[in-house]
Amino acid sequence: MSIAAAVRAAGRPLRVGLIGYGTIGSYVAERLIDGKTLPNARLAAVLVRQPREQAPSLLEGSGALFTTDRAAFFSAEWDIAVEVAGQDVVRTHGEHCLRALGRHFMITSVGALCDDGLHAALLSAAEAGGAQLLLAAGALPAIDWMSSAALEAVDEVTITQTKKPEGWRGTPAEDLVDLASLEAATVVFEGVAREAATLYPKNANVAAALALATAGLDATRVRLVADPGVAGARIDISPRG
To answer: Quick one: 151 and 82 in the same domain?
Structure first.
């Protein structure tokens, strides 16, 4: 049964458990709590790594559990866990959530699935637990369309991700170029999606998601560009068949 069908049958909102509460996690939590953006879903629990003296003020009155205790989180009543904390979380909690708990698991750190063994284990766990493994589309809202288009013999897909130089700080790009002094667009990586998601785990999840939905991790070419003249982050996609 699909998640939507299960929620309709239960006659209640979808209960969401967040794993992580950084920039993305707090954004998702806010949208779940406001009752307007996602009226058919509510925040049920949040699992974080580092303890805090108190839960964020945003969660006050929401009824959501905020904890560092894994056992407490996985015992809470939620329907789907949403990973917003990095690839390690996918490896640590994905299979347990899908197989042992039989609950749905959504991944934002899609690059984790470049590990073929992990990918296979998660798919097997989802089947065994009767749950769904879901990939967040992120900055690719038309990914369903692109996946359908890829059925028509797409041999290769190229994705170019362009950001301002500061957007590549904390990545291997810093070892390749002086980001602070760039005056023109500069390619900081060119290769396949599998390698991009491994070297740039926080930056190439979009490329990994596109690859998994279309030509595959080894037939999707990725160019990562630092451009001081770009107005904001930009993604260009070119299929070839």
So the answer is: no
CB atoms within 10 A of CB 138: 16
- Picking from 160, 103, 167, the residue whose alpha carbon sits closest to that of residue 133 is 103
Give the up-direction half-sphere exposure of residue 159: CA atoms within 13 A in the CB hemisphere: 31
Hey, which of 4-8, 146-150, 168-172, 210-214 has the most confident mean pLDDT?
168-172
- Reported as a single tens digit per residue, the pLDDT across 5-39 is 666 777 888 999 999 998 889 999 999 998 888 88
State the residue range of the domain holding 184: 143-240
Helix (H, G, I), strand (E, B) or coil at 160: strand
Q: How is residue 86 annotated by DSSP? A: -
- Say how many domains are in the chain: 2
Q: What is the pLDDT of residue 138?
A: 67
Q: Is the pTM of this model over 0.90?
A: no
What is the phi/psi pair of residue 221, to 5°?
A: -85, 140
The three state secondary structure string of 16-84 is: EEEECCCHHHHHHHHHHHCCCCCCCEEEEEEECCCCCCCCCHHHCCCCCEEECCHHHHHHCCCCEEEEC
| CATH at residue 118 | 3.40.50.720
Residues 17 and 124 in one domain: yes
- CA–CA separation, 44 and 18 (whole Å): 8
**Residue that terminates a domain, selected from 84, 108, 135:** 135
E strand or H helix at 119: helix 116-129
